[in-house]
């Protein structure tokens, strides 16, 4: 039996157990704890998507849980809204709050969300306790009506058990769709290297804020279900401490696997119940609930240090259910030859230059990396930039591709000023690039890496991806990506994880990924360094092929031989300044160039 | 009390609170610049310092010695935490490190709870005597101690960072760890040093504030976070601006709580935090820099 088949069986078994559980435990255990595990699972699925896939931590999920709860409570109790109308309001309200907080914070690279959400949690708690005429203050609100649709009133443990767990399964389905989609690949790319993701046109903040809004929505949903289930609400379950509990659940279960969220929620909830029984016996003190934090703190520390992926992978291994690396695209890849490669835009038709630099200057503190540099590259040319180490070559690339802002001067692409655009916009306008140290998306396959390159040429939206509506476009993207792999000669390794490739193949993969954005201008940063001589020959052929199919190429290279073989024109930089420009032959004999490379004596 | 007197009073208490936040904020900046870690457990150093000093004084140790021991222990805990929890995971990525500091916050808070229990502990003021009148405000003698000691610490830190090889090495590591390593600076050691400095500053904040409030096992989080507000406003990089921002923040918080309602104190404080984050984001957008220079060099 294949692992996939066994996974399907295991999933079916889990659903079956969930379905019969209320009958199995009837009269022995209260079903309430399972309702709560379901509610917490909903929140933790959102948190795991955020942490595991968007790479951000929130310490304020309890606030969104509370926001959903209070929106549902206040609109039904105080405004007489029908509960089934209050539910989407609670979900939407929590999602909106998350989005409004996240969208600006994600513009700041780094981990500021954790503080923003923590702050939100405290603010929310203070407001809920003090705006008494709305929230009922510390004592809260009672008499909240149960969910009902027409004559169907949803009351009791069993009804909320089924309702909650249906939402949990739906959330897992949505999360899985998202992870396996165009959006999921973009998020994986951002996690691997935000810089390389920007270089193929991905706006990291855009997707992170949407994932965060989704996590807010799930927490809001849990909150609304909670108040209709218990018919009462008070501030304490939504305080900051619960945000920490949720994070413990998420990390313990495993942030990289969504079902781990359910496992984490179950383990922590059951463990807490157990501690509440055991702790008072061991410590014999009245404040035993406070001691839980010791256990949870140590548990979190141990898990995150020794098994950062949580218990889920261990659980799968123990059940012999480890999924092999998905090869869902292999089929699509075999279509590579069958799909007509649409011709890239033909810049040759345009008389104007593709790239123009005007008086470009970049200063890092006291260091002048690029000094008043101007040059122009016409369409269809291979233009090489050479110069001794530290001459400012890579800085020029970073300035062209938008990773750095120039101190002065401007960069124009086909006449349009691009030096004030963020890197992902520059990429979308057709500037592809590779990096001196290859930055591939290590946890995606070779094929998926190139599919990420197609990001801006595909359209599946976040919402469509949630509902699995991008499959057809994905298949086409896979076929196109396979085409680019064929060009660089990596098609036979399409399903290998990119992180497992040898160095030379990494360079080729970066080229394929950059070609996938259909660049009008391709920047190659030392394409031949670290390659064997056979690989080098291939790269020379590849560079010519790229130019012949209509893409203008600018390359930075130390291998002067390669430059002489391929380049139409050469620019020599030294200390950020142009010292020569022209045909390779002429440049090679320029005394200033020889001086820069070999010293003044050699030149004279 | 007239409104002027009230405002003078709020200003005074805001400056004193802000000074305490500054000590925590400086520790956060030290850790962040040396190890790129956002230390959620920073406030726990203060709680440890406060509780330890109060117990030692209760057991009969002279206050000055107790304060020194408390600060020393907090520094040692800072270094120890780095060695046991941060360094082993230093290659694991910022997300893991962040979660580790959250775990540290919980574990340290839990340990404080196990040792000191839930009861508040008091520490006597450094010097006895009635409060003093400064302009329109009435200020306790301990408050002046807070400001005096912090001023001395700031001068010492300034000299350390600008005049000593060790301090300059630490700054070099913050700017570019790789280059610092190539220059023969032992980056690991500098990171441990940053954590020890952060521990000491946190412990000192606790010792200074304990006579003004009371020492409890769970006093740390809010204090640390408030230090964070100032550090974020100042961009997580500059020591002097962090001090200025923390004091300004303390004043805003105190005025807000005093003039609106003290129930809203923490709400106002963290409202300011969110506003500060949004403000920094807007500034980043205006600069058009989506990918930082540091990232481009990575």
From TrEMBL, chain A:
GO cellular component: plasma membrane
Record's keyword annotation contains NADP: no
SMART domains for the chain: AAA
Name of a matching Pfam family: ABC_tran
Domain ABC transporter residue range list: 355-600
Gene3D superfamilies: P-loop containing nucleotide triphosphate hydrolases
GO molecular function: ATP binding; ATP hydrolysis activity; branched-chain amino acid transmembrane transporter activity
Listed transmembrane segments: 7-25, 31-50, 62-81, 87-107, 159-179, 212-234, 246-271, 291-319
Keyword Transport included in the entry's annotation: yes
Topological relation to the membrane, as annotated: Multi-pass membrane protein
Keywords: ATP-binding, Cell membrane, Membrane, Nucleotide-binding, Transmembrane, Transmembrane helix, Transport
Localization terms from the record: Cell membrane
Domain of life: Bacteria
Protein name: Branched-chain amino acid ABC transporter ATP-binding protein/permease
From TrEMBL, chain B:
GO cellular component: plasma membrane
UniProt xrefs under Pfam families: BPD_transp_2 (PF02653)
Keyword Metal-binding found: no
Keyword set, alphabetical order: Amino-acid transport, Cell membrane, Membrane, Transmembrane, Transmembrane helix, Transport
InterPro entries reported for this sequence: ABC_transp_permease (IPR001851), BCAA_transport_permease (IPR052157)
Membrane topology, record value: Multi-pass membrane protein
Superkingdom classification of source: Bacteria
MF terms (GO), sorted A to Z: transmembrane transporter activity
Family per record: Belongs to the binding-protein-dependent transport system permease family. LivHM subfamily.
PANTHER family noted in UniProt: ABC TRANSPORTER PERMEASE PROTEIN (PTHR11795:SF450), BRANCHED-CHAIN AMINO ACID TRANSPORT SYSTEM PERMEASE PROTEIN LIVH (PTHR11795)
Name of the featured protein: Branched-chain amino acid ABC transporter permease
């Amino acid at each position: 039996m294949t692992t996939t088949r066994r996974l399907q069986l295991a999933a079916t078994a889990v659903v079956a157990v969930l379905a019969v559980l209320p009958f199995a435990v009837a009269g022995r255990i209260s079903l309430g704890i399972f309702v709560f595990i379901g509610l917490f699972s909903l929140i933790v699925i959102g948190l795991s998507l955020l942490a595991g896939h968007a790479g951000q931590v929130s310490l304020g999920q309890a606030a969104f849980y509370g926001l959903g709860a209070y929106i549902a409570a206040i609109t039904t109790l105080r405004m007489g809204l029908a509960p089934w109308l209050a539910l989407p309001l609670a979900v939407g309200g929590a999602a909106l709050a998350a989005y409004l907080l996240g969208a600006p914070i994600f513009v700041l690279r780094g981990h500021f969300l954790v503080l923003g959400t923590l702050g939100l949690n405290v603010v929310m708690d203070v407001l809920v306790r003090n705006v008494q005429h709305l929230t009922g203050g510390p004592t809260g609100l009672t008499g909240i009506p149960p969910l009902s649709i027409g004559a169907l009133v949803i009351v009791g443990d069993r009804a909320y058990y089924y309702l909650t767990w249906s939402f949990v399964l739906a959330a897992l389905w949505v999360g899985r769709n998202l992870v396996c989609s165009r959006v999921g690949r973009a998020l994986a790319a951002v996690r691997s290297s935000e810089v390389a993701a920007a270089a193929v046109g991905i706006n990291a903040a855009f997707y992170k804020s949407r994932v965060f809004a989704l996590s807010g929505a799930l927490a809001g949903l849990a909150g609304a279900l909670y108040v209709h289930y218990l018919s009462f609400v008070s501030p304490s379950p939504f305080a900051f401490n619960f945000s920490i509990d949720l994070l413990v659940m998420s990390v313990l279960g495993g942030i990289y696997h969504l079902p781990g969220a359910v496992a984490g929620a179950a383990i922590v909830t059951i463990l807490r119940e157990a501690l509440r029984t055991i702790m008072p016996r061991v410590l014999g003190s009245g404040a035993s609930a406070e001691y839980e934090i010791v256990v949870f703190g140590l548990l979190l520390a141990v898990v995150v240090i020794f098994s950062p992926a949580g218990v889920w992978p261990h659980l799968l291994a123990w059940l012999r259910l480890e999924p092999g690396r998905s090869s869902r695209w292999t089929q699509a890849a075999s279509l590579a030859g069958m799909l007509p490669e649409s011709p890239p835009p033909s810049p040759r038709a345009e008389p104007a230059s593709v790239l123009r630099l005007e008086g470009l200057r970049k200063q890092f503190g006291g260091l002048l990396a690029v000094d008043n540099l101007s040059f122009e590259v016409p369409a269809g040319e291979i233009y090489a930039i050479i110069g001794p180490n530290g001459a400012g070559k890579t800085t020029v690339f970073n300035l062209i591709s938008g990773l750095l802002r120039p101190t002065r001067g401007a960069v124009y692409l086909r006449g349009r000023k691009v030096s004030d655009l963020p890197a992902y916009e520059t990429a979308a306008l057709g500037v592809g690039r590779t990096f001196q140290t290859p930055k591939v998306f290590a946890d995606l396959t070779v094929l998926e890496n190139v599919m990420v390159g197609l990001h801006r040429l595909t359209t599946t939206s976040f919402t469509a991806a949630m509902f699995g509506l991008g499959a057809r476009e994905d298949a086409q993207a896979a076929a196109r990506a396979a085409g680019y792999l064929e060009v660089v000669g990596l098609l036979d390794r399409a399903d290998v994880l990119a992180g497992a490739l040898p160095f030379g193949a990494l360079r080729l993969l970066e080229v394929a990924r950059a070609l996938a954005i259909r660049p009008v201008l391709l920047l190659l940063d030392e394409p031949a360094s670290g390659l064997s001589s056979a690989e080098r020959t291939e790269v020379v052929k590849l560079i010519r092929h790229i130019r012949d199919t209509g893409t203008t190429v600018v390359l930075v290279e130390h291998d002067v031989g390669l430059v002489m073989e391929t380049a139409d024109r050469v620019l020599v930089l030294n200390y950020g300044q142009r010292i020569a420009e022209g045909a390779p032959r002429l440049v090679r004999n320029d005394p200033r160039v020889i001086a820069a490379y070999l010293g003044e004596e050699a030149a004279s | 009390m007239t409104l002027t007197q009230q405002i003078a009073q709020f200003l005074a208490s805001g400056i004193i609170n802000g000074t305490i936040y500054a000590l925590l904020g400086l520790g956060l900046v030290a850790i962040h610049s040396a190890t790129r870690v956002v230390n959620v457990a920073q406030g726990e150093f203060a709680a440890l310092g406060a509780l330890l000093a109060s117990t030692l004084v209760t057991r009969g140790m002279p206050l000055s010695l107790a304060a020194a021991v408390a600060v020393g222990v907090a520094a040692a805990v800072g270094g120890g935490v780095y060695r046991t929890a941060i360094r082993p995971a230093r290659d694991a990525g910022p997300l893991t490190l962040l979660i580790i500091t959250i775990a540290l916050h919980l574990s340290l808070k839990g340990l404080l709870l196990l040792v000191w229990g839930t009861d508040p502990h008091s520490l006597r003021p450094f010097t006895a005597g009635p409060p003093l009148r400064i302009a329109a405000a009435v200020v306790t003698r301990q408050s002046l101690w807070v400001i005096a000691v912090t001023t001395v610490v700031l001068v010492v830190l300034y000299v350390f960072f600008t005049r000593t090889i060790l301090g300059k090495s630490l700054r070099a590591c913050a700017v570019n760890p790789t280059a610092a390593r190539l220059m023969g600076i032992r980056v690991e050691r500098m990171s441990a040093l940053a954590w020890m400095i952060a521990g000491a500053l946190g412990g000192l904040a606790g010792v200074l504030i304990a006579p003004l409030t009371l020492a409890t096992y769970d006093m740390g989080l809010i204090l640390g976070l408030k230090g964070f507000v100032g550090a974020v406003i100042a961009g997580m990089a500059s020591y002097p601006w962090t001090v200025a921002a923390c004091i300004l923040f303390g004043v805003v918080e105190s005025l807000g709580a005093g003039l609106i309602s003290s129930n809203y104190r923490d709400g106002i404080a963290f409202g300011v935090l969110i506003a500060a984050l949004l403000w920094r984001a807007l500034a980043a957008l205006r600069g058009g820099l989506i990918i930082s220079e540091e990232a481009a060099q990575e």
